[in-house]
Design a protein that fits this description.
Blueprint lengths: L15 E9 L5 H11 L3 E13 L2 E7 L2 H14 L2 E6 L5 H14 L3 E4 L14 H11 L5 E2 L3 H8 L7 H5 L2 H5 L5 E5 L8 E8 L3 E7 L9 H14 L4 H17 L29 E4 L1
Parallel strand pairs: 1-2, 1-4, 4-5, 5-6
Antiparallel strand pairs: 2-3, 7-8, 8-9, 9-10
Helix pairs in contact: 1-8, 2-3, 3-4, 8-9
Length: 291
């Protein structure tokens, strides 16, 4: 039977999350991991690519930064058409790209901004020059609702030594607050001697310990990209900051726990983004306590 052209249909509006990051040709990190995480947690992903890497599970063999005018045109294209609720920022190759992204964030003013300050390689080498780190701190981080540094990145941002235990993580709190973001998630994943993976959610008036059981696996490529993208996704869905972080921690913990179900490459493989399908936020697998 034909339906009237005037028939009213009810559609649910999937929140849109933009990821601004580099491309990982191996599919485990960067834009590819971001899109998988955003999709798996129930939001719609769009993207702006800042660099193209030649990369697999064994490492990165080449990086091609995207010209500034093309980064800018991508940003204008998505912001001018799509109702972007949350933005996740990952790899930004240099100070000029950081400035372009910061200017466009100020121009379009998305509701939520999550920054994963990708600046330290697994080897410990700095991926950003000091001048670019300075630009990140002055131009972009003060705009953020939350930044998600790991321990070497926290050290690079504050000038402090890399923490080797939770007490040293706690000693970073005030220096991280001084960076100007509304919240900081200091990730303790590098403390491999600890039974649990403990993160500190640092807000203006509070600090919360968010903990999950550590899983023994070499397949952890893209964990930081995945976690920050999941936080952006849950914020876009209307969750408060602490809830969004707790849900994202649950999601990444399960994605790591299921990583060995995949057999991808010969090195450090990816986490399992789609271990449970969409709407992971309905599950409750993590713990949280006040510090």
């Amino acid at each position: 039977m034909a339906t009237s052209a005037n028939t009213t249909h009810s559609f649910s509006h999937t929140p849109i999350v933009l990821t601004i990051a580099g491309s990982d040709s191996g599919g485990g990190a960067g834009i590819q991991a971001d899109i998988k995480a955003i999709s798996a947690t129930g939001s719609f992903a769009c993207s702006v690519i800042t660099a193209i890497t030649s990369q697999n599970t064994l490492g990165v063999s080449a990086i091609f930064p995207i010209p500034l005018e093309h980064v800018e045109s991508q940003l204008d294209a998505v912001f001018s058409d799509l109702n972007i609720v949350a933005v996740k920022v990952g790899m930004l190759a240099d100070a000029n790209i950081i400035k372009v992204v910061a200017n466009k964030i100020k121009q379009y003013q998305p509701k939520h901004l999550v920054i994963d300050p990708v600046m330290v390689a697994t080897s410990g080498d700095l991926l950003l020059e000091q001048s670019a780190i300075s630009t990140l701190k002055t131009e972009l981080i003060p705009l953020a609702d939350i930044i998600t540094p790991n321990l070497p990145e926290g050290a690079a941002l504050t000038g402090l030594a890399v923490p080797h235990n939770q007490d040293q993580m706690t000693a970073m709190i005030e220096d991280l607050r001084a960076l100007g973001a509304k919240a900081v998630l200091l990730k303790g994943g590098h403390l491999e001697q600890d039974e649990n993976s403990n993160d500190l959610l640092i807000q203006t008036e509070s600090v919360h310990l968010i903990s999950a059981k550590r899983c023994a696996t070499k397949n952890t490529h893209g964990t930081g990209c995945t976690l920050s993208s999941a936080i952006a996704s849950y914020l876009a869905q209307g969750n408060e900051m602490q809830t969004a972080v707790e849900l994202a921690k649950q999601y990444i913990s399960q994605a790591i726990a299921h990583a060995d179900e995949l057999q991808i490459g010969h090195g450090h493989g990816p986490v399992h983004h789609f271990f449970a399908g969409p709407d992971f936020g309905k599950r409750d697998n993590g713990t949280q306590t006040d510090v």
